[in-house]
Design goal:
single chain, mainly alpha, Arc Repressor Mutant, subunit A, two-stranded antiparallel sheet, 5 helices, 51% helix
Length: 125
């Protein structure tokens, strides 16, 4: 059935793996709070710990995992590291997830279907 669709393309395995890894790492309320805080601007571990209500050591561990996934960046200034969200894709991903959660929670109607402006190119890798 899908093969009859003229523009149907599956993402390649590497894209699927990386997307799944990002979603896996976002499947934690503290990490979502950390990312949301970082979308408001750069922050330190101590500040993030206070904002999200977690111990600084726990926040550091979460940030390390988010950095490995490419969702967070760190900028060293002397002995301090200032963290920020990696790029605008992180904002879009998190905003859409929270928007969806709000719609589901409040049982709001679905929006009309729209096409995405960017569809990942499939490749034969």
């Amino acid at each position: 059935m899908h093969t009859s669709l003229p523009d149907f393309q599956m993402p390649h395995d590497e894209q699927v793996h990386l997307a799944a890894e990002s979603f896996r790492l976002l499947a934690d309320p503290t990490r979502i709070k950390i990312l949301w805080a970082l979308l408001q601007g750069e922050s330190s571990v101590a500040c993030l710990a206070e904002i999200v209500g977690a111990a600084p050591t726990a926040v550091s561990q979460h940030l390390a995992k988010l950095r490995l996934a490419g969702l967070v960046r760190g900028r060293r200034e002397g002995t301090f590291v200032h963290y920020s969200a990696a790029d605008t894709h992180v904002r879009a991903l998190l905003a859409e997830a929270l928007f969806h959660a709000d719609h589901t929670d409040r049982n709001l109607p679905d929006h009309p279907a729209t096409e995405y402006t960017h569809v990942p190119a499939a490749s034969g890798r």
